[in-house]
Structure formats: C-alpha cells, structure tokens
Amino acid sequence: MSSVTRPSALPAVLEDIAAQLDGTTGIVKIPFNLYILLDPEEQIAAARCASLNLGQSVKYYLDSTNLNRVYLANLASIQIYRPCEAWVVPGYSMPVLFPGMSRLVEQPNQSPRVDIQQPSPSQSFEAPQFQPSTSRIRRKRVTRTPDAFTAFSAHQYQFMKQKNPEMTKTDICAIIKAKWAKMDEEERKPYSELAESQQTD
Fold first, then answer.
1. Which of 1, 47, 67, 72 could form a disulfide with 28 if both were Cys (CB 3.0 to 4.6 A apart)?
2. How high is the pLDDT of residue 5?
3. Same domain membership, residue 22 and residue 115
4. What is the CATH number of the domain that holds 166?
C-alpha cells in the first residue's frame, strides 16, 4: 500500500511573501486554504522568512471579518492599517483579529466575559466556524481630539470622492497623505486653526 504525499504549499506561501513584502507594506496576507496546507515546520519556515525580510518578529493572525484570510505580520504593523485587537479564542490555533474593538471593560466582582487561553502547539486546525458571542461586550469609547491633519483629510476626502467616485478609500487616503507631507507650515495653518476651533467647541 503506497502512501500519498501531498505537494508542499510552502513554495506558494514563500512566493506570496516575496511578492507582498516589496517595501511598501509590512503585512503578508495568505489565503486560509493555503495556510492549512502548511505543516507546523513549514509554518515556522514561512514566518522566519517574513521575519528576516521585515527585520522584526511576525505571527499568524486570523481575520475575523474575512475567515478566508490569514495575516502574517507584526500586530503593530496591522494596526497601522486598521484598528484592531488580537484575541486568543478557544478552538483556534492562532490569535483572531477583531476590528475596532477596545479593551473589555469588566464590571467589579464579575468574571470575565470572554474565555481567553493560550492555544496548545499540538492543536489541529480545521476550517473555522465563527459564531458571534451572545454575551454583550462593553467597549470603552476612545475619543480623539481633532488635529490639523484630520481636518485636512476630512475636507480633501469629500472633494476627491466627488471628483473621482471610482477611486477606493485606500487610494484617496494615500493621495491625501502625500499632499499633506508636501505642504509647508503656512499651507497647514488654516487646518490647524480649524482643528483648534473644533477642540474648544
């Protein structure tokens, strides 16, 4: 009886890493169906390759908004592009990213609302069946004071979206950032004043 050997998914993942780490981002997105084909040694090898390319340690994270995507990155790099938190969820072999969540605020004398534990290295990983929690999570609201860049980007975003409705939000934000970087203090001054007036209101 001959054993069937499956082809290694590592070369495809290494190609993804090389293609995505072109100096413009510190994040690698791997399709979940490709990730599950990696054995533990291949997962470590892929993470080591990404770490060497980035010059920082990386981990695997499952995206809760798209369960077909696994991030291979440093959490701080992911948070630059989207505010999120990583939670260890029972039944998952890697931390799960939840976008826009603040830290849980627990009431005194109550047990935590989420069972958080470290995954075991020998835990097998099957296709996730994500079910939203039935318990209510209290979120601490973070309010930010507007700054000059926020005032500038709000103004520019509406203007650019009207002129170019086919542009994506990512493209528009990149253009706004580039414009802001080229502006001198005199050009930024009206937006600083607008931000200050909004803070006093």
1. 72
2. 61
3. yes
4. 1.10.30
Rounded distance between C-alpha atoms, residue 114 and residue 135, angstroms: 9
Indicate the Cα dihedral angle 130, 33, 42, 122, nearest 10°.
30
**What's the pTM value of the predicted model, to 2 decimals?**
0.48
Note the residue count of the chain.
201
Residue 122, both tokens = 């020998």
Q: Please say which residue of 140, 161, 178 terminates a domain.
A: 140
**Three-class HEC string of the chain:** CCCCCCCCCHHHHHHHHHHHCCCCCCEEEEEHHHHCCCCHHHHHHHHHHHHHHHCCCCEEEEECCCCCEEEEECHHHHHHHCCEEEECCCCCCCCEEEECCCCECCCCCCCCCCCCCCCCCCCCCCCCCCCCCCCCCCECCCCCCCCHHHHHHHHHHHHHHHHCCCCCHHHHHHHHHHHHHHCCHHHHHHHHHHHHHHHHC
Is the separation of the CB atoms in 180 and 149 below 8 Å?
A: yes
Please count the structural domains in the chain. 2
